[in-house]
């Protein structure tokens, strides 16, 4: 069994309780953690009971400490963004973060295809830790999207929604179809629902701090 956790926003009790109750092979968190301490500390109770994976959300770069408590935690290497990983016998692809008009807002053409493209335009004062501005570490770049399109997966986890949601993006439908996925799980909008998009792909939106299984059951 796989479990998928919607945006915790500081509330990790539901996913901890779900893991303790159902003993899943893995738990995948869909972003927006609001971490006042490291992710490994927040999930210490279940770290030995299941595999923990995540994608970042748009708020995970709002503050230096939130960023560091996620990306620099002992679980930092469990970031699925831009990767396909076999988890409990299923190939799971991740695309964290959000589309932003400054970078790429589909269906418009991307303004910056890569992080390096953006960095080349940033003055010293605009840079964060000598890299791109902090918030754009959780912006979706065209290069990351294209790299995933060339791969195959069974499940796609995203922070943004595909077109099944009123604020979703057709570009994510197209990514899922190109990758041959059977289901998408997303957070961001704090709504629990299930729907079907092109190629019969089933989409499960997961509510804030909500938990669903791989069939989308709440």
What does this structure look like?
- By secondary structure, the chain is of the alpha/beta class.
- The protein contains six helices and ten strands, in the order E-H-E-H-E-H-E-E-H-H-E-H-E-E-E-E.
- Strand 8 and strand 9 form a beta hairpin.
- The chain is globular and about 50 Å long.
- It starts with a strand and ends in a 5-residue tail after the last strand.
- The relative contact order is 0.18.
- The mean pLDDT is 97.
Low-pLDDT segments, ≥5 res = none
Order of helices and strands: EHEHEHEEHHEHEEEE
Mean pLDDT across all amino acids: 97
Q: What is the spatial order of strands in the main beta sheet?
A: 4-5-6-7-9-8
Shape: globular
The count of β-strands is 10
Overall radius of gyration = 16 Å
What profile does the largest beta sheet have?
6 strands, mixed
Proportion of residues in helical segments: 10-25%
Proportion of residues in β-strands: 15-25%
